[in-house]
Amino acid sequence: MSIPVVLVPGLGLGPKSYAPTVEHLTTPYDIVTLPGYGDPAEPGADLRPQALGTALADKLRDPSVLVGHSAGCQIVVEAAAARPDLAHALVLIAPTGDLRAATWWDLVVRWLGSAVPESPRLIPALAPQYARTTLPTIARAVEAARHHDMARAITRVKAPIVLVRCRHDHLSPAEWIDRLAELTHSEARTLSTGSHMPVLTNGPELAALIQRAAAAPGQA
Q1: What is the dihedral of CA 170, 192, 197, 163, to 10 degrees?
Q2: Which range, of 21-30, 102-111, 144-153, averages the lowest pLDDT?
Q3: Is there a contact between 130 and 138 (Cβ–Cβ < 8 Å)?
Q4: How far from 122 is each of 14, 118, 138, CA to CA, in Å?
Q5: Measuring CA to CA, which of 43, 57, 122, 123 is 20 to 30 A from 83?
Q6: What share of the chain has pLDDT > 90, as a percent?
Q7: CA–CA separation, 70 vs 14, rounded Å?
Q8: Where are the alpha helices (DSSP H) in the chain?
Q9: Which domains, ranges and CATH numbers included, belong to the chain?
């Protein structure tokens, strides 16, 4: 028996972003979309990770492994901090939220550095998801996420955390992952291949980490 898994997509992405990962899961899972993270936002909607974390927590019914990708990690952390009774463990994939590199210039430079190693074959998978979320919503969500202090928020989480990034990811660099791991005494891993989209490029490796986090006591 395994603990259920709840996955939150990265900013602008939707359920299909997790397809190469969840196909390797044997534990029950649910992919939750939110405004800016798979769903378009209504005018005036609060897209701050704190508000979306509360919305995510309201959708949880049982203790779960909470999985986030990119800025979705900021939402997962806020949900776990708000409802520690419902966070069995966290798996944070390519987490963002470093206020020391949160200007638009920083984000563009890091995004370009991360995009270059990605395969052009990802474009057909990404474009429809971004179109569904809509570019205006994505821009608002980026603006909200870049002001969120992930380093401060993550210290409020009581559940075990696994942090994972890829070797060529400039949006989630090794120094940032190591800092979060030190703050929370968590496990940090860098995969030898991939960039900022490991949910699409490193599915089997991510699924193994998620599966391990979802193992019931005595099965790990």
Answers
A1: -80
A2: 102-111
A3: yes
A4: 14, 7, 18
A5: 43
A6: 86
A7: 12
A8: 19-22, 49-59, 72-82, 104-115, 123-133, 135-145, 150-154, 174-184, 198-201, 203-214
A9: 5-214 (3.40.50.1820)
